[in-house]
User: Fold these one by one.
Assistant:
Number 1:
Amino acid sequence: MNFFKSRTKKSNQSANPEKEDLPNSTSLKENVTYLAEAFQRSSDLKFRVLEEGSAVLIYFESLADQEKIQDKFFKPYMQLTKDELMTKSSGRKMDKRKDVIQFLLKGHAAFAIDGSADIVLFSTTSTFNRSVDEPDNEKIVRGSHEGFIDNLMININLIRKRIENKNLTVNFSKLGEISATKVAVVYIDGIANPKIVKKVKDRLKTISVDYIISPGFIEEFIEDHAYSPFPQMINTERPDKTAANLLEGRVAILAEGSSTCLIAPATFFAFYQSPDDYNSRWFTGTFIRLIRLFSFIIAIGLPAFYISVVGFHFEVIPQDLVIPVKSSINDIAYPPIVEALVMVVIIELIREAGIRLPTPVGQTIGIVGGLVIGDAIVRAGLVSNFMIIVVALTAIASFVVPSNEMSTTLRLLTFPLIILSATLGFVGIVFGMLILLIHLSRMESFGSPYFSPLAPLHVKDLKDTFVRLPLFKMNNRPTDAKAVKKKTQGKSRGWITNARQKK
Amino acid sequence: MPGKKNEKITRRQFFFVVIQTEIGVGVLSLPFDLHQAAKQDGWISLLLAGLVIQIIILAMWLTARMFPHVDLFGILPRLFGRGIGSVLSFVYCLYFIAVCVLALLLFGRMLHLWILPNTPFWILSSCLAFISFYLISSGLVVMARIYTFVSILLFIMFALLLAGVNDMQLIYLLPIGQATMPELAKGIQGAGLAMLGFISFYILYPQTEGTPVQRLKTMSLANLFVVTFYLLVVLITFGYFSTAEMALVPQPVLYLLKGIELKIISRVDLFLLSMWIVSVATSFSTYLYMSSIGLSVLFHSKKIRRFAFFSTMLAISISIYIGIEEQPIDKFSLLMTNLSIAFTGVIPLLLMVYAVVVYRIVRRKKDGKA
Amino acid sequence: MARLRWAPLLLCLLLLTGCWDQRQFKNVKLVLAAGIDSTEEGKVTNTVVITNVQNGQSGNGTEQMQVVTASANTPLESRTKIDQKISKRYDQSKLHVLLLGEKLVEKDIYPYLDMFYRDPKSNLHARLAVVGGKVEEALSLNIAGEPRISEYINGMLTGEIRSTQMPNNNIQLVCAELLEPGQDFVLPYLTTNEEESLLQYDGLALFSGKSYSGSYLSQENAKLFLLLKNVMGADAMLTRKIADDKEAVNNYITVDVKEINRKLAIDTNKQIPKVTLDVHLEVDVLEYPPDHLQSEKKVKELEEKLEKTLTKEAGEIIAQLKEANSDALGIGRRIQGYHPGVWKQLNWEEVYPELTIDPKISVDIQSHGIIN
């Protein structure tokens, strides 16, 4: 950390604050020299000399769009006089060096004339946007297939399109002393709890770093429990999910240059929800949600349970399974904990290798890892059949979670539980689970309890946690976001009673 | 972060804190203790114990109602003056730590007998104690949340026991009414030991939301719940084991499940035992919490966590010193039974009498003068 | 931050703790069936069937049975002796079937079961059976198509329970009745059929107190006995002779008991209590070649005949119980439960054989299948 701190200080000193605050000079030459120096004579800074040296157009070749320059500058330039250009064109007059530098960095083109301290800036920023495609890591079957991209404005546009309401509030701020990343805090005034909004803004304000590359940086700076393995803010690239969360009274944080949106406050169970739950019929939604939550137990507990069964309490194996299990593990050389650790590590290796490689190769790795190694390792007598089943199931269960962060956390939590179960058996698992439960219950995300609605128990909220009841039953917002406006709907199925009354 | 100061627990949480504190170490051997005392009429003792405890609760409520903003450790100095009050508070803290020690010992012995015969006791006791320390250092609100959540285990435990209903022979509950009064009284003592947790009312009362009557109602409901839960457990075990066999089985609840094989899993007792650990942890934590609150009040300190750590270490060291051999534990638990009669029975009643009669008169006189 | 200070400490502590109680499943020799018998000299013989499995690359691999026997003063001592003959140590926490020798059970059987009751790891769910003849022989049988003797015996006993030939039993359930005064128990009685190399269920061994009385109920009587005891498995078929026709097969009727309604009344006014046992059976006819069951008269007639036969048999069964001094119906415990004052004055073991037990069985034919 010290390293970063010292660098921050140095960079502050090296900048030249006195000169930057000065107004532009009236001399064109001085201005040009200053700008060239200010950008360290960067090669992509283009000076285009016009009118035999009495005017210069300055822009970054790498940032500005040639066509836009043609459109916004040269067309009016041909038709208008210089003075008219100063006043009547779409350009903006700037007289401070600092501002000129700022706008040049955004891709604007600066037009400077000898004898005038005003420099006109034309917005010629070139933008390269990928299309708003569905994010790869959050695919759904039904519903919206749009996703955030790396442009902040377009992302906010995607949200505003979904919530056409004057109360949708967007607050910009700049983070990172060198990178000056634009960060937006989005919430709906009148629904979101002002205390939570204030908390988010205050925490963002205190961040003092050189650069923010991605929201992951922001997350670590503002979350409540940095030493917890659990993610405390929802990461999503889906505008529809973001909009839904905003409507529940949460706050979203978006950053320029990243397609991930952070949502706070989050609860543990928020990570188990997917827009798909609401797009499908509520029976299906409920069923899938129950499966997902069940997968949590499998993902963290199954290997530990299996190890304590075969290592401590094999009495619990039902009579009919005794011989199959016994014959499967009888000739394995290593104790079950080694088996389990080996297998878990192998699965992680395959996963990691698969992610980094190009898709066709990644598939090959999957096949080689899954089928070939899996089969060979059993034949070699290193790992038993049952352990393969157990570990594979665990891995699959951890991938069921819609959130990538939570899924990684789950796979990480398997290890301490494996170790505990290998030392104390069932007792160890109970101890581990207790610690986990205490940890989850004492965590808070921006002032709302993390393990809500289970601890503290909110029976009414359970209908959108473990199950998903029909939407017309969810009359109130979930309590964990502490929304100011509690009610979400009136009688949405009022037509039934209306029809009855007519009869 | 630990729960905020002055945050109160809801009445529902209060209910669960009480039942989780009451249902703890004792539940596994309760039927045996009752049977030892009053044979197949043990369940009558249990009901009577519930009644006695209800009376004590009423007494505690009458006392606590007079001092709505302070707990036991605030009441004692107010009633008896700083000197005597502090001594009494300190003795109560020691008593709570002693209950912790007993819980640790019985927990250690149970695991030693049933599941981990070779694991050293100090490991198990310090694991449990440190988990509890972690729990109480999060504050009462978080404790209450967790207690509410883990109460679901009680229902699972009960559901597991239902597997034994098939093989019950109701004839073993007969004849009814053969036990003599002294036998029943002894049974009440045994049952009381399994329900000691009601004393937490003193500490929790000022930290709970609601009017005094509402809180009393919740407390009485909790008592009713515990008695009902125990009653069902006792009846199932009494019906499963014959009168003669019961005398041989100190942990009938576990022993019942040991002989049951479900299709997907056998040896259900090991699962019950695992869930029971949670119950032990919760009641252990409450006592630890009460003693550390008491100590912090005594020493006028706000750093409850420091005293919690102290209490934890003290409980662990004493329990390791006593060890889990049969004789010392039996002696210690006998001592605790007698102490408990004093601390959870006699003293609350006396406090009530003193507070309602003496203190009120004194105060009235003072008010009159002023 | 304070909590982080001791968190690593706790972690180290856990990591350092070895694995004191680890019992690797792969390292044990599994005993699924065992038997206890006594020798001529009064020593205890322990026979265990160890299942050795070899890992198959796919599928369940191969199994081999190893029967080992040793004699010593107590069951556990003989266990030590067995361990000296095998690799590793054997483990009986997954015991499936426990056989007791006929000679052994003539004495108090509790001492031989004590090690199971006392051990936290033992499987109390294992089924118990008495073997007429030598236990070792029964366990060494090679049964075609049944690789595991434990599976074979357990399957057989489970089948008998389902067809109401024996009550549900395991080591745990026996204990209650074993120790309780005024209640005796029965165990299935198996014999070795050497010609066919099979075991055979022969009936219920009657226990008196804690030891075998020496007589067993034949398997024909066992079913009726269980009905008298108000115990029923999945089905209970009774085939009885009700006529004297020329064609022998036509003389019989087979019924399936659907419901039992038992009333056990104890009259304690006299010196020796008098017991009336009213059992009402609701039955379905499964087999009756002469047909024509639609007539009420015919049905009534059949019911009466069945009632007569069954009541007579019940009387014989009770006589046998009394002769064996085995209160397997639990009458004593009922007297204790409902008339505790009377019970205290009785010396049950002496009174029981003198008891008047009056069985009366009534039958109600409810249906007769899909033809008349």
Number 2:
Amino acid sequence: MSNRIGVYVCHCGTNIHPKVNSPEVAGFSEDLQNVVVGRDYKFMCSDPGQDMIIRDIQELGLDRVVVASCSPRLHEKTFQNACLRAGLNPFLFQMTCIREHCSWVTEDSEEATCKAKHLVAAAVNRVNYHDELYSRMEKVHPDVLVVGAGIAGIQAALDIAKAGHKVHLVEKAPSIGGHMAQFDKTFPTLDCAACISTPKMVAVAQEPNINLMTWAEVEQVSGFVGNYQAVIKQKPRYVDMVKCTGCGLCLEKCPTKVPSEFEEGMGLRRAIYRNSPQSVPNKPVIDATVCRTLNGKKCGVCEKFCPSGAIDYEQQEQTLTVDIGTIVLATGFDTMDPTPMKQYGFGRFDNVLTGLQFERLNNAVGPTGGKIVKKDGTPPDSVAVIHCVGSRDKNHHEYCSRVCCMYALKYDHLIKDKVGHHVKVYNFYIDLRCFGKGYEEFLTRVQEEGVTFIRGRPAEITDKARTPEEEGKLVVVSEDTLLGQTVRVPVDMAILCTAMEPRPDAPEVARRFGISQGLDKFFLEEHPKLGPVSTATDGVFLAGTCQGPKDIPDAVSHASGAAAQALALAARGEVAISPTTSWINPDICIGCKACIGLCAYSAIEFDDRLRVSVVNEAMCKGCGSCAAHCPSGAAQVKHFTEKAIFTELAGMLAPVPEAPITVEDHAESPMAEAGPQESVPPAAETEETATAS
Amino acid sequence: MSEFEPTIVAFVCNWCTYTAADLAGTARMVQSPNVRLIRMMCTGMVDPKYVIKALLSGADAVLVSGCHPGDCHYINGNYKARRRIKLLTEILTGFGFDERRLKLTWVGASEGNEFAETVNKMVEDIKELGPGEATAIEVM
């Protein structure tokens, strides 16, 4: 018996129709083989639209459905569910995209309609060869892996742990807190970063549902949604975490001093170190690259002084494997190194600082004990704050880093507050973007404090004085675009508000977790608006700045979103796995084993008794590497069978009968305009008759 | 219209190029209507037979496009596609096809503009090249 196909062409309001003449396409489809009904409707995805499909399946006995509308990435599930509600297997459905790939990108209406017809013909052809398939339910492991313990990772881990699920929280650094631990105050409320983040960090350490692993990295991830295995490398700390009490005596006695990364190179740390006294965990770690003992020199001072005998030079790297159901990535950002921007003299002039360096200068436990001073120890009388260093710049990052305007304003206030109101503060900005809650109010407050705003991106910072006032100062040379003239501003200190950028190891991390990066190299979300935390890989979610620049409130909400997504899977306990796996027909397979070597997931085994290859469906992801290679044609991916593709091709390439208009009419535009309208009545008629029946 | 309008079939992977095509659409990047997409899960799924069939059934050119090397959603399907397409190109040229009729590109999920450019460039190239050699063959 031949199939009974229903074709549904969407108008999508005015997005598809009238660029693609939807009624004409629906009318055209009715002439295709096996098509019982072809309809068009304003919004196919709406409830009445779906009900139309359901009614037709039940009343006209349709056994195949084709919808021509937006991208299947948007609404394939919607229509599959509609089919399911009508009692039709959701895989007997085919969706073709006539919006993103057709109406939106084709200039000529005639051509767009013709292309839509080709696409519909291809879909109709293909759906004839669809088979009933059934999704397989798999258990979801209740544990969650959170990678990165900055504020986003901490928030996600706490949310998940509070819901009663176990979290493995892996942090690369020796302690948690990320960049937020380096900050002093936070905009716009000016509450101290430590005061608001330390309680959260402590909560992580005390939460029984969180297995915190610091100084550790995720080496390898395998498995699929609900059933991932992660191999975690625990780097040797050379300090026994159980014995160490965190007294800090070793930190004072260690003879080796190196520049501290946490202090952004402004202060020194020992070879055995912790970032700050509030670090969580507060137990130190030995830097094996500089430690004298670990490099074969005579020392052992820390071991000698340690009152609890916690130093262990023999510690080895350990790897452990954890089973998890879902993964939250919160690997954060880096700030751009402004050294390559030679015009600003970072690294050349002592008093040109990055934003993070200034943060440390402000911090009570920072290198100056919280005093804002120049390199020589005296307070500055004038400071330039340069916005958008590396952001909104085609040579570096085209995007806006979103936080610099606000932290620059925070610095303005802090300088006025800590050094004194006599200090002159100059902001060099392009635009002031104060979009958040309470941000604009903060700008007004800072403006009222007597800060100067100069609209222009500085050309350079120089120490070459032209006037006696500029002598011994840094001179910021810029255009004031509001005055339309060049200005030279002599200052004692310049702060570069450097861009937020992806971590240098982002490509490697993306590969490891099977996700992609966007053009800006931040991790790519599933949908820029409606899927900002999920990724192309099921069960892997993004939290915080690894997805794009964010301030703290945004990173925290993003992280809570990711936690909710991970919990949704974990709490439900099972997930439907797509049945579109590969299948090897044992009657055709010649047992050449070529597919076994090709399979990236080791999902194909050889049955020695039958002398054929067999696919393990639990491991197969349906990539089709085997099907494309199989010399006998025995391997086929379900839903993407050779038959389906061949017929889709045939439909796509078959000539489409010209619409009611002839080629001659085509040339004259008024007639071409009239053409599509002529086709409306027949299509409308069919709709009426069909509804009547 | 006297100008030759080629028909191009594109086999694109669901995760990168199809998403890029969606993005190009959302951003309303104007494209020639000559290219018609067939969604595959991975370029590694593209059997050389499909390409040959397309060329013999009236397509003037075939585009295969997927994730950038190293970015494959299925670990390494795109590398397999690269090997197959390379080999297939040699076979096709041996049979008298112009090698420009089969093109393999990498267009990542965020590269909507890249997709639109690839499509438009290819249409231009094939217009210059003229109708496919296979249209003369009556066998299929």
